[in-house]
Design brief:
The chain is mainly beta and 171 residues long. It contains 3 helices and 9 strands. The protein is globular, with a radius of gyration of 16 Å. It starts with a helix and ends with a strand. This is NAD(+)--protein-arginine ADP-ribosyltransferase.
């Protein structure tokens, strides 16, 4: 995931054989259309503005159960509600099958449904997966290019700076 999210596109090259194998395997699982939850440890809600189209370049682990996600949250976390259309349920293959883990593939495109709900203890972002029905299920994963990927800077309360990938469509 670190390589997939890296600004340095060459960092992904050593992983191409694994990613191809992963993609071939995950595509054999049925698509799951459901609301999913994902939590991350820092507040990046301000990076998500209504109607923006973003891409999550890494493999994203989610769960349909919010109580599973709450164990990953703290006061600076961001909680995502994702309306998934191509999630892949891997609970039968997981050591934690009770978590009902659902994966979103690399390069999952998402639309920000509404501006973030923020309070002192909670930052929630509502996303909707975008899927082009004309895409072939056997297509290879998309690798971001410098034309489609820009980076935004986030500074947290402690002064730590993070560069985050942001998908900007080009025409």
């Amino acid at each position: 995931n670190k390589a997939l999210r890296s600004k340095d596109r060459d960092a992904v090259k050593p992983w191409f054989p694994y990613l191809k194998l992963f993609h071939a395997a995950i595509e054999k699982l049925p698509d799951i259309r459901m609301n999913l939850w994902r939590g991350i440890e820092r507040d990046i809600a301000d990076n998500y503005t209504k109607d923006d189209i973003i891409t999550w370049w890494g493999i994203s682990s989610c769960s349909p159960f919010i109580d599973v996600i709450k164990g990953f949250l703290n006061r600076t976390s961001t909680l995502f509600l994702v309306e998934a259309v191509r999630g892949k349920d891997i609970s039968l293959y997981s050591s934690f099958s009770q978590e009902k883990e659902v994966l979103l593939s690399p390069a999952t495109r998402l639309r920000v449904v509404s501006n973030a709900l923020e309070s002192p203890l909670l930052h929630v972002v509502h996303l909707q997966e975008i899927y082009d029905q004309n895409e072939s299920s056997s297509s290879t994963p998309v690798v971001p290019t410098t034309k489609s990927l820009t980076f935004g800077t986030l500074t947290d309360e402690a002064g730590n700076r993070y560069e985050l990938p942001v998908y900007k469509p080009y025409y």
